[in-house]
């Protein structure tokens, strides 16, 4: 479940990163959220 959320957030980040640069704040928020979710998944042992 957490890995799915992390992948979705990373995909959204890539779409925004490749798209419009106006949303630079949202891009950074999404990448930080994706990293946090991935870390939580690793800590919980969901790998």
Features:
47 residues; 2 helices; 81% helix
Task: Outline the secondary-structure elements.
Elements (H helix, E strand, L loop, with lengths): L1 H17 L5 H21 L3
Helix pairs in contact: 1-2
Short description:
This protein is mainly α and 47 residues long.
Q: What does this protein structure show overall?
A:
This protein is mainly α. The chain has one domain. It is built from two helices and no strands. The chain has helices spanning 2-18, 24-44. Helix 1 packs antiparallel against helix 2.
- Element order, helices and strands? HH
| pLDDT averaged over residues | 83
Beta strands, count: 0
State Rg. 11 Å
Number of domains: 1
N-to-C CA distance: 11 Å
Helix content: over 70%
| Stretches with pLDDT under 50, minimum 5 residues | none
């Amino acid at each position: 479940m957490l890995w799915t959320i992390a992948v979705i957030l990373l995909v959204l980040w890539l779409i925004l990163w490749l798209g419009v640069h106006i949303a630079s704040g949202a891009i950074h928020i999404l990448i930080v959220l994706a990293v946090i979710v991935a870390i939580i998944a690793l800590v919980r042992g969901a790998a």
